[in-house]
């Protein structure tokens, strides 16, 4: 696979400037506190100062002091990706008292962001087969979505998941065009990396292999190509639990016991906050069965779709701007202007018409199956439903892909003008709000 084509160089160049600027803006906003490397508690430094929409900042804590605060079962490979950054920061911080965690993580994010933009453009050109200018427009549209834009700059795993998903789509899409199954080493490696960063995304690699290979995906060799990386990820998870999590939990329990004796008021406040979080998360099917405790059967689905799934995901709300639903943001927030609802409706209509246009395209049906899995998980099961917008980077590429099939089959300027207008609006609206928020 060619690393960078001539027509992709402007895309990569613009992406590098834009995403580096967004990351630089976030870092500059917290420079004094984030870069302190001596006599500080890294939880208070990062968690108390950077809380955009509830995205995790735990990668910065890990790079600073190798404390793991995320769910290792859901992100078993995240530690492996961050360990080299921790090692490098360990060489920098002690002698200089300068914490380079934010700079190292930003470098990783920007590299993933640029790679993702190039892959999105290449996918639209090679698989959807749109014209060059249309591919550029649709790529701009995608990264103009509010929580795709936010994901490119916050130190969470979403910016790392996105290019892996796009790479899977590109490889599977090419195989579909060739009428060939994915190679076993490809599906195994993609599953290992994609599921390793976000466990549930491994299902999408399996779906991609199934669409490309049909019944061959059920052969023992194909099944083994998923079993082996699963076992490897399991071994990595067990190692993390034994080497990092268990000693850390013992230490935390000792600290909590000491705090409970010295400051019972603080413990009471923590309990009060935990009760608030449970209320925000909705009622689970059961709290006694693993995984099912993450379900939500009470949060309203229709309002979630309007205000969050196709609302906050694509256009930021000015009220409770970028606040965390686990802290101060209500589950549902309305827009101040009717124009936002008009834009939301246009994007949904664009998706619907594109889906109808591409209904006989096997590649689009695969993308639709991915989207269906995400909707089953979030809107059906209720996982992360109260903050479904932070998962936008895992599914929103279906909108530019669907729109791509409209543009490919239309010689009219009308859909191109609509896509261009939406892209300009999203960037003008979302970027202006983000920049104002950080400044």
Automatic annotation (TrEMBL):
<dbReference type="InterPro" id="IPR045726">
    <property type="entry name" value="DUF6080"/>
</dbReference>
<keyword id="KW-0812">Transmembrane</keyword>
<feature type="transmembrane region" description="Helical">
    <location>
        <begin position="77"/>
        <end position="93"/>
    </location>
</feature>
<protein>
    <recommendedName>
        <fullName>GtrA family protein</fullName>
    </recommendedName>
</protein>
<feature type="transmembrane region" description="Helical">
    <location>
        <begin position="99"/>
        <end position="121"/>
    </location>
</feature>
<dbReference type="Pfam" id="PF19558">
    <property type="entry name" value="DUF6080"/>
</dbReference>
<keyword id="KW-1133">Transmembrane helix</keyword>
<feature type="transmembrane region" description="Helical">
    <location>
        <begin position="413"/>
        <end position="438"/>
    </location>
</feature>
<feature type="transmembrane region" description="Helical">
    <location>
        <begin position="388"/>
        <end position="407"/>
    </location>
</feature>
<feature type="transmembrane region" description="Helical">
    <location>
        <begin position="188"/>
        <end position="212"/>
    </location>
</feature>
<feature type="transmembrane region" description="Helical">
    <location>
        <begin position="338"/>
        <end position="357"/>
    </location>
</feature>
<feature type="transmembrane region" description="Helical">
    <location>
        <begin position="218"/>
        <end position="239"/>
    </location>
</feature>
<feature type="transmembrane region" description="Helical">
    <location>
        <begin position="363"/>
        <end position="381"/>
    </location>
</feature>
<feature type="transmembrane region" description="Helical">
    <location>
        <begin position="52"/>
        <end position="70"/>
    </location>
</feature>
<feature type="transmembrane region" description="Helical">
    <location>
        <begin position="12"/>
        <end position="32"/>
    </location>
</feature>
<feature type="transmembrane region" description="Helical">
    <location>
        <begin position="133"/>
        <end position="152"/>
    </location>
</feature>
<keyword id="KW-0472">Membrane</keyword>
């Amino acid at each position: 696979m060619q690393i960078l084509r001539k027509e992709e160089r402007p895309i990569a160049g613009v992406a590098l400037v834009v995403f580096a600027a967004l990351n630089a803006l976030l870092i500059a906003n917290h420079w004094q506190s984030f870069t302190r490397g001596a006599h500080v508690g890294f939880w208070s430094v990062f968690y108390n100062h950077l809380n955009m929409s509830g995205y995790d900042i735990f990668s910065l804590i890990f790079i600073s002091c190798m404390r793991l605060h995320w769910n290792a079962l859901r992100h078993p490979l995240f530690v492996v990706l961050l360990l080299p950054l921790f090692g490098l920061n360990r060489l920098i911080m002690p002698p200089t008292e300068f914490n380079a965690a934010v700079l190292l993580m930003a470098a990783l994010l920007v590299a993933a962001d640029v790679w993702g933009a190039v892959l999105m453009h290449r996918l639209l050109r090679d698989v959807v087969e749109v014209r060059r200018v249309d591919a550029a427009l649709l790529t701009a549209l995608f990264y103009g979505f509010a929580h795709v834009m936010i994901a490119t700059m916050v130190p969470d795993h979403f910016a790392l998941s996105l290019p892996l998903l796009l790479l899977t789509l590109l490889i599977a899409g090419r195989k579909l065009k060739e009428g060939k199954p994915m190679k076993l080493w490809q599906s195994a490696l993609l599953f290992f990396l994609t599921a390793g960063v976000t466990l549930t995304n491994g299902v999408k690699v399996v779906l991609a292999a199934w669409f490309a290979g049909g019944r061959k995906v059920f052969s023992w060799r194909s099944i083994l190509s998923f079993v082996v990386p699963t076992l490897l990820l399991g071994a990595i998870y067990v190692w993390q639990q034994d080497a990092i999590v268990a000693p850390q939990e013992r230490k935390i329990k000792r600290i909590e016991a000491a705090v409970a004796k010295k400051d019972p008021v603080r413990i009471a406040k923590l309990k009060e906050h935990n009760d608030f979080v449970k209320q925000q998360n909705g009622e689970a099917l059961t709290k006694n069965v693993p995984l099912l405790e993450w379900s939500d059967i009470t949060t309203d689905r229709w309002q979630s779709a309007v205000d969050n799934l196709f609302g906050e995901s694509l256009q930021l709300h000015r009220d409770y701007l970028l606040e965390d639903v686990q802290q101060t943001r209500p589950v549902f927030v309305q827009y101040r202007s009717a124009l936002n609802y008009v834009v939301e409706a246009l994007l949904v209509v664009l998706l619907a018409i594109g889906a109808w246009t591409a209904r006989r395209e096997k590649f689009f049906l695969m993308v639709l199956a991915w989207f269906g899995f995400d909707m089953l998980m979030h809107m059906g099961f209720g996982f992360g439903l109260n903050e479904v917008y932070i998962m936008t980077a895992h599914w929103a590429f279906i909108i530019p892909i669907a729109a791509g099939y409209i543009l490919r089959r239309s010689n009219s300027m009308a859909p191109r003008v609509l896509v261009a207008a939406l892209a300009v609006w999203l960037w003008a609206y979302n970027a202006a709000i983000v920049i104002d928020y950080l400044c």
